[in-house]
Amino acid sequence: MRLSQTDPSSYSNADELIIRHVDLDWTVNFEKSTLSGSASLYFKTLRDDVEEIFLDSSELDIASMAIKTSAGEVPVSWDVGSPVENIGSKLTVYLPTKTSGEFTLVVEYETNPKASALQWLTAEQTCGKKHPYLFSQCQAIHARSIVPCQDTPAVKFTYNATLRHPAGVTGLMSAVKKKSETGVSYFEQKTPIPSYLLAIVVGALVEKSIGPISSVWAEQEQIDESAEEFSQTAQFIAEAENICGPYVWGRYDLLVMPPSFPFGGMENPCLTFVTPTLLAGDKSLATVVAHEIAHSWTGNLVTNRNFEHFWLNEGFTVFVEGKIVGRMFGNAARDFHALHGLSELTDCIKTQLADTPDLTKLVVDLSDCSPDDAFSTVPYIKGSTFLRYLEDLLGGPEKFEPFFRSYLNTFKFKSVMTDDFKKALYDWFREDPQNEVFLERIDWDRWLTGTGMPPVIPNYDRSLLDACQKHSTLWAENDLETIKASPLLSEKLTSIQIIEFLAQLLEKKKIQDLTPEKLKLLDETYHIHKTKNAEIRFRFVRLYIRARMLDKMEEILAFANSNFRMKFVRPVYKELACWPEAKPMAVENYNKVKDQMMSVCAYTVSKDLGLETCK
């Protein structure tokens, strides 16, 4: 069932009226785990005589609603529909008269302690152990749990916020902080954003400058390590501007999140959230920051109109991220980055999406599925592979990048569908008749609605990958003594190559003699227990699972409990669920820690364990 014409996941009647600006006044209550206060929604009608507003909400306790007029506030009535799991409720507001033009709706309300967008941490769950901590994650459709809104990326608005919080902690939002007093912070976001980019964090945070427009924020215990890990941020921004055009958001700060943050990063404007699992000690995972910076154009500036076209956000962002990597570290590194992505996509299709092939399409149907259920690496990697295919087909970067910049400039501040991109591509390249033969080769149906891996894999430079393949073949096809005697063991691999080597090993249908002794040698050879790199550790504990090493369950679960990044915990739990002896321990562990997870993580892991089905 599609909830509205504009967006299958939103009840809003955004074809009749849209929110242009929001004023928030929030009080943070750690004792009650709530935000309370008001939201003033500034509407513009798109047709005459609107009588009702349909908004999205999720478990909000609404105290009052009123239309603000020159003569004062006029109370209005409203109705909250029955809640739908993972969607929320339809909030219908009845306007006192047929309305045209612009008007303001003021809503006084309080969030639910279990609001799906918010994570409340006790002081004990933080590094410093002294102050509680609050953070949000509104993507994809969780903003409706913190503000009644048109929770669709088809609608963009500016916002101002007054945030009241305990003294002694810092409040930050996805906006520029204008001023702060004891216990009160004031914010302004002058560039229109979709609701999923609304963000808040409150905690014992300190900052350290890492560039002309950038600081990193973290708890005191992690601030120096974080500043060093992300010291390339200013260079990433400069390269992104060369590719995409001017940076329009004013600030670009980074916030290192608590371990319960469910994603690698979240591109909240002015304040990117990143997982602490990026703190590898050698900058080897810092390209996630390049990805989030790229979102400042692809996603934040030009936005998918609904999440069926999520590849327009994520595929484009991975494409730009790869270009940043190429400019900084060379084209071989760019192509290795892409090939590693294809390994992750292969793994995702075989494990996470094995039972849902329709979700391996680039453009998905979310009529009966929430965006959280559809979330995977497909829009990221299949999408970026499609763009690389188009770039190679249409004359390489020197021909494609001017079009790409033009596309971003044409659609900035707007929300788009795949057909908008397709039309822009044809309009640009058809100016040269010689391109017609190449445009005719593009099989849009196979790329957009075909299942499985990309229909064409570009001709990537495989030089950095070949070493990984040699190592994975050695370990998969030989016994212990042959491996020990191999000269390959003296050839050093970089951290990223070790990640790829382990990924390839996991992809092998058969690994000869996968014994504790073999894994012990692998551990010693590549110094796995000495590394802080979570991507390496993630793949190594999955080899324990593959080897059915029940005596390593404590270590496997310790990794699963060390962070609740869905990229890591979902495959681990899914694979434990297929191991009869281990599944009861996995379920018991999940039940112990699920309250420390964000709701999106707890819900999807419960499905991976077979405790809940997709609704």
UniProtKB/TrEMBL annotation:
Alphabetical list of InterPro entries matching this protein: Aminopeptidase_N-like_N, Aminopeptidase_N-like_N_sf, ARM-type_fold, LTA4H, LTA4H_cat, M1_LTA-4_hydro/amino_C_sf, M1_LTA4H, Peptidase_M1
Organism: Aedes albopictus
Lineage: superkingdom: Eukaryota
Record's keyword terms, sorted: Cytoplasm, Glycoprotein, GPI-anchor, Hydrolase, Leukotriene biosynthesis, Lipoprotein, Membrane, Metal-binding, Metalloprotease, Protease, Zinc
Major localization listed first in the record, in broad terms: membrane
Residue span, Peptidase M1 leukotriene A4 hydrolase/aminopeptidase C-terminal domain: 463-609
Protein name: Leukotriene A(4) hydrolase
Annotated pathway: Lipid metabolism; leukotriene B4 biosynthesis
E.C. no: 3.3.2.6
The record's free-text note on cofactor binding: Binds 1 zinc ion per subunit.
Co-factor requirement: Zn(2+)
Pfam families named in the record: Leuk-A4-hydro_C (PF09127), Peptidase_M1 (PF01433), Peptidase_M1_N (PF17900)
Annotated membrane topology: Lipid-anchor; GPI-anchor
Subcellular location: Cell membrane; Cytoplasm
Family in the record: Belongs to the peptidase M1 family.
Catalytic reaction annotation: leukotriene A4 + H2O = leukotriene B4
